[in-house]
Design a protein that fits this description.
- The protein is of the alpha/beta class and about 240 residues long.
- The chain is built from seven helices and six strands.
- The protein has a four-stranded parallel sheet with strand order 2-1-3-4, with helices on both faces. A two-stranded antiparallel sheet has the order 5-6.
- It is globular, with a radius of gyration of 18 Å.
């Protein structure tokens, strides 16, 4: 059964929407993630998880999006956008998805931080105030807890590296991992709605990721994330108009 919207014919898209009117909209950004992970980690990870969610639930998966607000903006390879633009783009997506017949939208971000997560949630809340469609808006890790109580989230650390090893091991270069490295803050500070500057000097990981990160840990984290998002979809479908 097809789940990627871009691969469906119009008839297949209508059939999928009539069968299960839930659409997944994944987003992330290009952002520095140390020396061992690709710049597209946030989006690649998010799309990998979203694919599994679509396969599990029968939801329609839209193509991966690459937009988000300021992160490590001065660091090599990072691209971000203003809060106003991100919210506008998100709402435009919501309007298009609602007109297609969706009752629930799963708007999940693989790019973290309170500013990004807050922006995603604000866009959803603003839109839902005037519309019937339900929107699950969150960072992918929210609602998932590891057995030790951790939320499976960090920046290029144990959990993101492990999920990358589970989803796209060929893009992970553990031979280039350094527990302590110079931060490549190469670009000038760009004014944004959130007064945030990237770290400078030295970045140090608490753990030697060559010892603690693994595909097995990544699969465990992804499984818990999928369990939570599946439950949230069921909950919202039960209450959707």
């Amino acid at each position: 059964m097809k789940y990627r919207a871009e691969e469906m014919t119009p008839a297949e898209f209508k059939e999928a929407m009539d069968r299960f009117p839930v659409v997944i909209l994944p987003t992330g950004i290009l952002e520095w993630h140390a020396d061992h992970l690709p710049l597209g980690l946030d989006a690649l990870k998010m799309y990998g998880i979203a694919e599994r969610l679509a396969q599990r639930t029968g939801a329609i998966l839209l193509p991966q999006q690459w937009f988000g607000v300021v992160g490590f903006d001065e660091m090599r390879g990072t691209i971000t956008f203003s809060k106003e633009l991100v919210k506008r783009v998100a709402k435009e997506f919501f309007a298009n998805i609602e007109k297609m017949g969706a009752r629930v939208i799963v708007f999940v971000t693989g790019h973290y931080g309170p500013y990004q997560v807050g922006t995603v949630k604000e866009a959803a809340e603003d839109y839902m105030a005037g519309h019937d469609v339900r929107i699950i808006a969150q960072a992918e890790y929210e609602g998932a807890r590891m057995p030790n109580g951790d939320e499976p989230c960090d920046h290029a650390g144990k959990y993101e590296t492990s999920m990358a090893l589970a989803l796209f091991p060929g893009l992970v270069q553990m031979d280039k991992f350094k527990q302590e490295l110079k931060v490549p803050a190469e670009y000038p500070y760009r004014e944004n709605a959130w007064d945030y500057h990237s770290p400078t000097g030295t970045w140090r990981f608490a753990d030697d990721l060559r010892e603690v990160a693994s595909a097995e840990l990544g699969e465990q984290a992804i499984g818990l994330i999928l369990d939570h998002l599946t439950a949230r979809i069921e909950e919202e479908m039960g209450g959707a108009a």
